Amino acid sequence: MFVIVVYDVGEKRVVKALKRCRKYLNWVQNSVFEGEISEANLTKLKMELDKIIVPDEDSVIFYTLRSTRYSDRQIMGLRKGGQDLII
Amino acid sequence: MFVIVVYDVGEKRVVKALKRCRKYLNWVQNSVFEGEISEANLTKLKMELDKIIVPDEDSVIFYTLRSTRYSDRQIMGLRKGGQDLII
């Protein structure tokens, strides 16, 4: 499945969050990752992030697309990261 | 259709970008908006943002979900914004 992860975490935790996401997904923009991921790896990523974030200060949103047939992605301006053909 | 917009724009343009997105979508996190939007309004939003951003400095990504039947959204930590029932 395809996942988009956006996070808004405290400055002290940003690098850790980035490193965890980068293990499984593609960096596309500051605090935004995306990519194909297995259910198992998504669970791992969530557990790893759960250990890092401070729940009443930080926010992480996971958008999961079980099929990308009904979605697409358009970039305006600079293409900062990510793969070419995704959705 | 449901849209997720993530932007990474220069500091001088952030407030303008935020105001344009807030006209059409729900703020959910720093530089992240989401919500149901018509094709016409999405086109308007894109045109308005296109006038604001500096293409070789700023980046805006539009994830468009024509059906939310195959997607879901999960929040970890703080729920900063957005509506309750979305996808």
Automatic annotation (TrEMBL), chains A, B:
Protein name as catalogued: CRISPR-associated endoribonuclease Cas2
Family as reported in the entry's similarity comment: Belongs to the CRISPR-associated endoribonuclease Cas2 protein family.
Residues spanning the membrane: none
Job of this protein: CRISPR (clustered regularly interspaced short palindromic repeat), is an adaptive immune system that provides protection against mobile genetic elements (viruses, transposable elements and conjugative plasmids). CRISPR clusters contain sequences complementary to antecedent mobile elements and target invading nucleic acids. CRISPR clusters are transcribed and processed into CRISPR RNA (crRNA). Functions as a ssRNA-specific endoribonuclease. Involved in the integration of spacer DNA into the CRISPR cassette.
Subunit structure, as described in the record: Homodimer, forms a heterotetramer with a Cas1 homodimer.
NCBIfam families: cas2
Organism: Sporomusa termitida
Listed EC numbers: 3.1.-.-
Any Pfam family matching the protein: CRISPR_Cas2
CDD domains: Cas2_I_II_III (cd09725)
GO molecular function: hydrolase activity; metal ion binding; RNA endonuclease activity
The protein's required cofactors: Mg(2+)
GO biological process: defense response to virus; maintenance of CRISPR repeat elements
Keyword field: Antiviral defense, Endonuclease, Hydrolase, Magnesium, Metal-binding, Nuclease
Entry-linked InterPro entries: CRISPR_associated_Cas2 (IPR021127), Virulence_VapD/CRISPR_Cas2 (IPR019199)
Annotated residues for binding of Mg(2+): 8
